[in-house]
Design a protein that fits this description.
Blueprint lengths: L5 H13 L2 H9 L6 E5 L5 H5 L4 E6 L2 H10 L4 E5 L13 E5 L4 H11 L3 E7 L14 H11 L5 E8 L2 E3 L2 H10 L9 E2 L6 E3 L2 E10 L11 E5 L6 H8 L5 E8 L2 E6 L10 E4 L3 E2 L1 H13 L5 E6 L7 H12 L4 E5 L5 H7 L4 E5 L5 H12 L6 H10 L2
Parallel strand pairs: 1-2, 1-4, 2-3, 4-5, 11-17, 11-18, 12-16, 16-17
Antiparallel strand pairs: 5-10, 6-10, 7-9, 8-9, 12-13, 13-14, 14-15
Helix pairs in contact: 9-10
């Protein structure tokens, strides 16, 4: 989203008053909401104003947007100015709307805080930006992939809306182009009225409807389980995510031998050898070295990866389970198989599982980068942020 300025607000208001985009979105949303709606990051309140007959609280922190909304809101619209993560909702009953706002994980966290009925995520279902050049990932496709990988059920409705931009003159169109960093001239249409120039922009949009009761309480989850088939990039994803971890272990396979190493250490010797492919693990090595690594005090832990080889290492398994349950933020890579240990980890109330795949790995890399910087109430994200110096 372009930062709000007086110039941008004037363009947005012209598009709202002269177009039909927000009215189309409101018609699609209306059958799914009732009573009270919290519109998180509701900006200038265009969608809220169109939801006539429904009590809407717009949560917005931008000062310019709030100044506009105070002067132009409909009677059924109320403003709660500030950071949605820090504000305390006056009422928690009803639905939550996140329209082109934040990361999906942030939407899920805020839905649990601000509502108790449905979360409606509204996202552009196309690549690229409406008015800029270049390529940008499809937000709706990212939302689909992430919800599926979190095993969160949802319904989806697609609509097509006209979010075009009107102009009074060619100079106004050029100012708009400069504002969005667009290179070249827009292909404008001519029409009658106060705004004789029109930049058409018809775009597909997807609305995702999620029952808030199906959303895990992410802020209480200290352990993120990354589960996926071999070769899909689990360890690469976790390695980038937790490059600054100060506890736990990494496993490495070299010439059919599997070694267990502390974070930041590499040793391929007998003391770190914990198994041989095709022959199984060495339980006593897991129980000695593995337990030792997990007992070290730390503030951010990685366990990469857990599968079959530790099946006979009872003490190591106890330490892994304890690590999955304690409050230290932990990221664990697990194989997509059923063992007593892995099943026990998956069932921990403190754990949430993402099903990692070739199709969603880019979406998850982008999602965690955004979530790390935007969800301060989730200790895992906050620890990732502070330890990476973001």
């Amino acid at each position: 989203m372009q930062p709000y300025s007086e110039l941008l607000i004037s363009f947005l208001v012209n598009a709202y008053t002269q177009g039909t985009g927000w009215q189309s979105i409101a018609r699609a949303v209306r059958p799914f909401v009732g009573g009270h709606v919290a519109d998180i990051g509701g900006g200038l309140g265009f969608l809220a104003n169109e939801l006539k007959g429904i009590n809407v609280t717009v949560v917005e922190r931008d000062e310019l947007a709030c100044l506009y909304l105070r002067a132009h809101h409909e009677p059924h619209v109320h403003l709660s100015q500030g950071d949605a993560h820090q504000l305390r909702p006056e009422r928690r009953k009803g639905d939550v709307i996140c329209c082109n706002y934040g990361s999906l994980l942030e939407n899920l966290v805020l839905a649990r805080k601000w509502g108790d009925r449905n979360l409606i995520v509204i996202a552009r279902d196309a690549d690229g930006h409406r008015f800029r050049g270049g390529t940008r990932p499809n937000p709706a496709q990212r939302t689909r992939l992430l919800l599926q990988s979190l095993s969160i059920p949802y319904q989806e409705q697609g609509i097509v809306v006209d979010m075009g931009q009107p102009f009074r003159s060619q100079e106004e169109a050029r100012a708009f182009s400069r504002l969005y960093g667009h290179s070249g001239e827009y292909d404008l249409q001519r029409r009658n009225g106060e705004f004789p120039l029109w930049l058409p922009m018809v775009r597909p949009i997807s609305l995702f409807f999620v029952s808030i009761g199906d959303i895990p309480e992410l802020v209480t989850k200290s352990t993120l389980l990354v589960e996926g088939e071999q070769g899909v990039g689990k360890s690469t994803f976790v390695g980038k995510l937790a490059a600054c971890a100060d506890g736990g272990f990494l496993t490495k396979r070299v010439d059919g031998k599997v070694y267990l190493n502390p974070i930041g250490g590499v040793a391929y010797d007998e003391d770190h050898l914990v198994g041989v492919c095709g022959r199984g693990g060495i339980p006593q090595r897991f129980d000695q070295l593995g337990v030792q690594l997990l007992e070290r005090p730390c503030t951010l832990r990685v366990m990469d990866e857990l599968g079959f080889m530790e099946s006979e290492a009872r003490e190591f398994q106890k330490s892994v389970l304890q690590a999955a349950k304690d409050p230290v933020p932990t990221i664990a890579v697990i194989k997509p198989c059923r063992t007593p240990l892995l099943d026990a980890i998956r069932s921990c109330p403190s754990a949430v599982t993402i099903h990692f795949s070739m199709e969603n790995r880019d979406a998850w890399a982008q999602e965690m980068e955004r979530a790390t910087q935007s969800i301060p109430e989730w200790p895992l994200c906050e620890r990732l942020r502070t330890r990476s110096g973001l």
